Amino acid sequence: MRVFVMRIGHSYQHRIIISLGLIGLIMVIAMTTAYFLSRNATLQQAHQGLATLGRYVEDEINRGANLLQKQTNIVRNHLGLRRKVYGVVKLNREAWPLRAYMRQHFSWLQDHRIILVSRTSEVLAGERQHGLAQELVKSNKQITPQKRLIYVQNNKGLTHMATAPIYYGNHYLGLVAVAQLLDQSWMDRMSKVNGGQFVLVYDDKVVLSTLPRLKKGDSFMVDDGYARLMGASFLAHRLKLINKQEPGPQLWILRSRAVTLQPMQSQAWWYWFFMLVLAITLAMIGRHMYRGFIRPLDNIKQMVGVLKSGHIPKSKKIVSDKEFAYIERQFGKLARTLHNKINELSAMRAQKNQPVLMDTLTGLGNRSQLSNMYTYHAVQVQENNSCMTVILVDIDGLRKINAKYSHVVGDHAVMHVASLLRSCVEENDLLFRTAGGEFLIMTTDVCDGGLAMAEKIRAQLEHSPMKYEDRILDITASFGVIEVDKLHRVVGLESLMTRAKNAVRTAKTSGRNRVAVGNLEVVRKKA
């Protein structure tokens, strides 16, 4: 650029004017690029906002689905209803007493949202409400005893059903279904509450829509996140409906592209006016600052490039202007300081990412990880009335092994036991090393198999001697078993460990290489 300027004019003023003209052109290009980048960023943020809104609507639908499943389970677990259904299906009794029984006992549940279908696809109750029974029979051509969520399209929109089998004893009787209708009123309500427009599409044709001018049967196509409808462009996001069979109806949420860009377009003239004023201001100031500004700026730019490459830049002195030379030197110092800080942060991040919940010797979870996992599973036992078994394993005579053979041999004994335990537990069981020669096995959903499991591991360890160099050592362990089921109160980890250690102590005082069972206080549930 400097050679080109010298050819055009020889005076200092000409060179300044031409240089500022080129700078102005660069500013125009930069501002134009920034404008379009800002527009793209606005559209991208709008897409993300639409996706967030879609997830909110999906959560709303999923909460409705969970409610449907709960209501379905309540109905199908009702003993009196199962007896009535058994009488109709197995004893060929009339169905009207069953319908009367349902109206009497399930008045809290809207009648038009519940139906009963026998295993032979005969509608026992709810056959007159919105064709819901026929829709269930149509979607279940062969009624099978399974729980599931399905979507069925009808003339009013999309029906979301939760189905569950009904049994009386070992006899499979049929299905109960509770449904939620995603119709025009539902879409209007969601559009009013959450914003955006909703469109229900089937086979690329509009079925329902909250857009006033979009009619049923209009074509609906989406390309790269945009839908072209009624001569306008819309941002489009497809809602993910759980357990929906493909192909099938699709629910879309839309937002107008023009409305999204309207605030930016209304400010476009001010944007360009600001760009013009900025270019003129830079031209006036640059006429007096050319010699003292361009070279330091180039030097700073070079230092930035060196800094990005991972090296420490060296500042250059500028003789013509001491003020900009000072700025350049300060920038060089700042660059070196920033480089050092980046190295420090990298070292801190590497140290932070090191595992803190893992035992370095055995690769098992340590006491901290046990505390986290126990808290979670204890809550699950209380909420789900499930079971949990804890087995504490303590190596017999580990101190004597360390004293007689060295701690290296003791560490190999610990690793030997850890390897054997890892091979004995199931995939879903949890295994931890809680102390020097102490391990803990935690199993869930196992109520009465802890003693047998501990005895199996004890026998296998007894018959698996450790080989180290030229030595063969017999390794045994004592076991303490604590079983927690729905009749027991779930205690804290420290209390549980204390009772497990008492059981281990009982096994050791009884001669070691034994299994002892600890006790928990039994708390009966109130009727």
Record keyword descriptors for this entry.
18 strands; 527 residues; 3 domains; Alpha-Beta Plaits; Beta-Lactamase; 5-stranded antiparallel β-sheet; flat; single chain; 14 helices; disordered N terminus; alpha+beta
Describe the structure.
The chain is an alpha+beta fold and 527 residues long. It has three domains: 1-266, Beta-Lactamase (2-Layer Sandwich); 275-352, no CATH class; 367-517, Alpha-Beta Plaits (2-Layer Sandwich), CATH 3.30.70. It contains 14 helices and 18 strands. The protein has helices at residues 2-8, 12-76, 79-89, 96-105, 132-139, 184-194, 257-266, 268-308, 322-352, 367-384, 398-405, 407-424, 450-462, 493-509, and strands spanning 114-118, 123-125, 148-154, 157-168, 171-183, 197-202, 205-209, 222-223, 226-229, 232-238, 250-256, 388-395, 430-433, 438-444, 466-468, 471-473, 477-484, 515-517. The strands form four sheets. The protein has a six-stranded antiparallel sheet with strand order 7-6-11-10-9-8. Helix 3 (79-89) packs antiparallel against helix 4 (96-105) and helix 8 (268-308) packs across helix 9. The longest helix is centred in the N-terminal third of the chain and has 65 residues, at 12-76. The protein is flat and about 100 Å long. The chain starts with a helix and ends in a 10-residue tail after the last strand.
